[in-house]
């Protein structure tokens, strides 16, 4: 019995690890190849009549970060007659709107809108849908309110779309602006770099699959029209949108040349809330689509959903099972038949974790440092283990919600004032 | 794994060395020293009944004489006779080939005639036979049923070794003088087996051995055996200083599901067996699966088609195995011969596969076999020929017919009958404890007492571990009351077991040397077969290892690229 359970947990864990190993290889290959097309693309951009672009910034009480964000927007590299940046003030009770209006006064291509009626205070999806109604640009670019895109970010995103007919959306890369702040942001920094070069780049390289991360992406208005905008009931509107895009027969390009910098949670509590929302959102999406998995048009999405299913359900089950067996074995001899190979596998798993992260880190400038390697090792035993608890908790909450038939509540991620931080360090 | 096994063998070897210090072991290695005189066993009549007796005679003589040659009367020539010091002539039938009989006229050595037909030999030409007579007992032994003998009146002075008795009258049954002897019966069933075997010492003036070699086999241990019972029964014997012979079937096939259960699926039993072997227990290969027909249970035959009662005719038996065709179904003798040869080839291949699988799997599990025993002792003569390529020792009895497995016999001595093609037979002589019998122990005791009357006879018995401890003590005490009983330690005899890849040799000094040299491909396939899960995990380790090295190279390249960038930026 114990033996079978152990094999099951090994199988679950290793299917995942091998898949990630495969993705890491793809991620590296994508890094080596994604830039090759740029000269040709640039040329086309310079020759053509550029499309009109709307940048959406949904904001709900973002006074802490919005100034910095809009400053970055004001410096975007794109013909200003083709660009309109829209700050969507959604149910703000602070100075967000005022700050936005100051920018709008100074920069004609920046506009502030305020959600009204049914759109007001209903969360990000609703705000985006409102802006969609209020604008006309051929291409929509979305940034979270705490983002500071690099100058050519929008340009690069649009470049991806005009050069790739099959892509409904182009996703850029995001980096952590407050990586040095706390132990938590150090972990998140490593995590996000790895996520993008492994999961995003890897999946894109092998299967042309990428997930919209909620920020720093461009999408054709025509597609959004076909899809009737964002799904307001989803906690993770981006995953939801991703699936619908693939179902429509398009794909999403991961183009890491478009870079934005964003703030990450600095305290455990905020992190916990944000990630619980993500986990719950993804669990919701997986379960929603899994029910009619076979009715999905896109084979790729079926596969990717299965991957999500594995991530949030099977893999964690395997890990928990394996941990449970380990603990039980401490107190009660289970007489596991497996020999030294189990220990070797464990070592291999750790090394895989380390090398995969190190590849991702060494792609980014200045990231493969002794400090980061130390944090990576530490992560294996701390941050990664926190995820287990988090996913179980999310699953529990999600089940409770389904049973009680509650509506999902959108928790806005709390922002951290850059200035305050600076004051402290000075 | 291999390392572990080697350590185990080393440990086994060390323990064996300690237990069987050469100084304490018997100096000669053999229980009875064999007589050097050259014996030719000549027989007439090749029917099943005759052959059973001939093989018994051959076996028995080979247990007493170093050189025994088995010859059909048709193949006898003057030279063969000249080279023999003793001729044992067996015939239950009248012989009309006067020319052949005349060959014996000039023969001057000792002649032992057995059966009516032998009286046609010139040596007995002046004996008178005055009719037939029934006797009720021979010597002290009352016969199970009256036996008809010839009333012989020898022409010369003869010493009577055994008298047959009818009420007050007595008639010579076994008699001899310096030049010849005669046995007035021609079958060796029941009591006659013992009477004849015992008489041989007087007939040939052999020294009677003082001891009885003995063994107890723990029979039919398979992966579904209860480890506790095996451990208990074997440990009981070992604790008493009695050598343990573990008769192991390495694979059990569930008759209902067809599912294979190997020792790997029975880790507890495997551990028990390993421990027993390290304590000096001997492993006897009991075939590979104990089955041929898939419909049979674990009680099945493996080297004999018990459904058709014929030799093995297919590499894998299914329902459609056909009866072997008879001579009249072929137009010519050549065709028939060709047909039989092709069947024999299949049987040989089948037997090879099974025996190699058995030896290899047992050795892989750290239980190197030291001898062979066919399930139900059933095997054709061709099967024995194949088995002799792998084993030098065989336990049990021998099947002496290629058409009926029930034709079975065994001499009472450790012997090497011609039919076994060089293998030494450690005969089973007293049977097994049958719990269904009215008197399980008493039944064995009866036979044992008879065996013990024959000097030097092996007392070989079987105990099934599934009986637990219930009968074991009593069973053992039967042995213990035999004076001069000496337990057979197989490693005191030079024996070997070999395949192309495994060499298990026992030089006869208490050592059991195991050499495994599988080619790496076989090692890998075996490992995969034996531990599919673990093997798969090692494959994962290998694949991961390859990727890990690739990743490290990537990191290295990225690092170089980063350095270059820094350098360029600085300039």
UniProtKB/TrEMBL annotation, chain A:
Its EC number is 2.4.-.-. Belongs to the glycosyltransferase 2 family. Keywords: Glycosyltransferase, Membrane, Transferase, Transmembrane, Transmembrane helix. PANTHER family: POLY-BETA-1,6-N-ACETYL-D-GLUCOSAMINE SYNTHASE. InterPro entries: Nucleotide-diphossugar_trans. It holds the Pfam family Glyco_tranf_2_3. The chain crosses the membrane at residues 6-24, 305-332, 338-361, 373-396. This is Glycosyltransferase. GO terms for molecular function: glycosyltransferase activity.
